[in-house]
Design brief:
Blueprint lengths: L2 H19 L15 H5 L3 H8 L6 E2 L3 E4 L3 E2 L5 E7 L4 E8 L6 E6 L7 E6 L5 E9 L2 E11 L7
Parallel strand pairs: 1-9, 3-9
Antiparallel strand pairs: 2-4, 4-7, 5-6, 5-8, 8-9
């Protein structure tokens, strides 16, 4: 491959990666198998749990832990991790209560693996962050209030 061909082809890939990273995704993403629009349109912990299949209100549990900073200097990058100490955990969801889209991440936990996840979240403002774990047919959660000093308007 010649240098000009490489530059021409890689610039398109770079543009696509930047578009995807900024939240612009192809229209087909909403039609992907497993996409749950009700969960991502939900505005509260109870609504997200219901959209994910909960038949009763989620319960706070000491067996679900959430690590998040008490003070986030920049809402564009807030590092959080969640863990369920209970066997049979099949999902862990991370929610940011006051973001325009409360459900920030949803992880499927394969059988036989440790139920622990970590990621960076965007936070528009100071808010409660929840870790919601599905254990069998029950939904359990932990939360932490995270104070954001510099918000991220694009959250």
């Amino acid at each position: 491959m010649h240098r000009r061909e490489f530059l021409a082809s890689s610039s398109g890939a770079t543009a696509l990666a930047l578009a995807a990273g900024s939240g612009f995704t192809p229209a087909q993403a909403a039609d992907a198998p497993g996409w749950n629009p009700a969960a991502f349109n939900a505005k509260s912990l109870a609504e997200v749990a219901e959209a994910l299949g909960a038949t009763s209100a989620p319960l706070e549990s000491a067996d679900v832990t959430l690590q998040a900073p008490e003070l986030a200097g920049n809402g564009a990058i807030v590092r959080v991790s969640a863990r369920s100490a209970l066997a049979g955990t099949t999902q862990i969801a991370l929610l940011v209560e006051k973001n325009p889209v409360a459900l920030a991440a949803l992880f499927e936990i394969p059988a036989g693996t440790e139920a622990q996840v970590a990621t960076n979240l965007k936070m528009a403002r100071t808010s409660r962050v929840y870790a919601l774990a599905k254990v069998g047919e029950q939904y359990l959660y932990a939360f932490r209030e995270v104070t954001v000093t510099l918000g991220c308007d694009g959250a």
